[in-house]
Amino acid sequence: MAEGRAHLSVPIIYDTMWQSTEKMSLPIMQGIQDEGVDCKVIKLRATPMSVAIKEFWKSRGCLVGTPTLNNIMYPTIAEFLTHLRGLRPKNRIVGAFGSFGWGGGAVKEAYEEFKRMGLETVEPGLQILYRPSLEDETKCYDFGREFAKKVKDYHLKF
Ligand SMILES: Cc1cc2nc3c(=O)[nH]c(=O)nc-3n(C[C@H](O)[C@H](O)[C@H](O)COP(=O)(O)O)c2cc1C
């Protein structure tokens, strides 16, 4: 796929079983937008894979949101990252977040996948235990703002 010039934008590409990761994505989006960075929230199961890939491709940054399912990523997110790896993206900055119930593991696995692709990462991502509380939503907002700041800095290099 052609490289193309990336925009100062961050799609949030997520999936969810019981809406906790979804509930995280909205304050994260707000944080990103409050830094003046465009942000779209895309629920992977409700969106063609090609649309999600295109949104990634157009954007300098990307966040993936995935709950932990049996110690690993949610399958649609794993599939998305597998498609992406085959396309060998470059010059993008990425991060991950998600809800978990006990040991977690999905966010860590997403970062392992990002590193395999050689992408710039903002670590350690954000994990929230079960359903986000109001306090957790503030953490999500701050996470979004901090991520957007890193994307703006990184974008200056291009
Ligand atoms: C089938 C199933 C397997 C799960 N496996 C794990 C797991 O291995 N580790 C963990 O920390 N949480 C696990 N959980 C808990 C979920 O990650 C947790 O409920 C989370 O809040 C779900 O987020 P969501 O509402 O965005 O789907 C599992 C939940 C389900 C339904």
Keywords summarizing the entry:
5 helices, 158 residues
What do you see in this structure?
The protein has 158 residues and is of the alpha/beta class. It has one domain: 3-Layer(aba) Sandwich (Rossmann fold), CATH 3.40.50.360. The chain has helices at residues 20-34, 49-58, 75-87, 106-117, 134-155; strands at 9-14, 38-43, 61-65, 93-100, 120-121, 126-129. Strands 1, 2, 3, 4, 5 and 6 form a six-stranded parallel β-sheet that branches. It is globular, with a radius of gyration of 14 Å. The model has no long low-confidence stretch (mean pLDDT 96). Residues 16-21, 67-71, 99-104, 130 line the site of flavin mononucleotide.
Describe the secondary structure blueprint for this structure.
Layout: E1 9-14, H1 20-34, E2 38-43, H2 49-58, E3 61-65, H3 75-87, E4 93-100, H4 106-117, E5 120-121, E6 126-129, H5 134-155
Parallel strand pairs: 1-2, 1-3, 3-4, 4-5, 4-6
Helix pairs in contact: 1-5, 3-4
The run of helices and strands is: EHEHEHEHEEH
Largest sheet: 6 strands, parallel
Structural class: alpha/beta
Q: Count the DSSP helices.
A: 5
The CATH H-level superfamily is Flavodoxin domain
- Strand fraction equals 15-25%
Mean pLDDT: 96
Shape assignment: globular
Present as ligands are: flavin mononucleotide
In total, how many domains does the architecture comprise? 1
Q: Using only CA atoms, what is the Rg?
A: 14 Å
Q: Give the CATH architecture.
A: 3-Layer(aba) Sandwich
Helix content: 40-55%
What is the number of beta strands?
A: 6
Distance between the termini: 19 Å
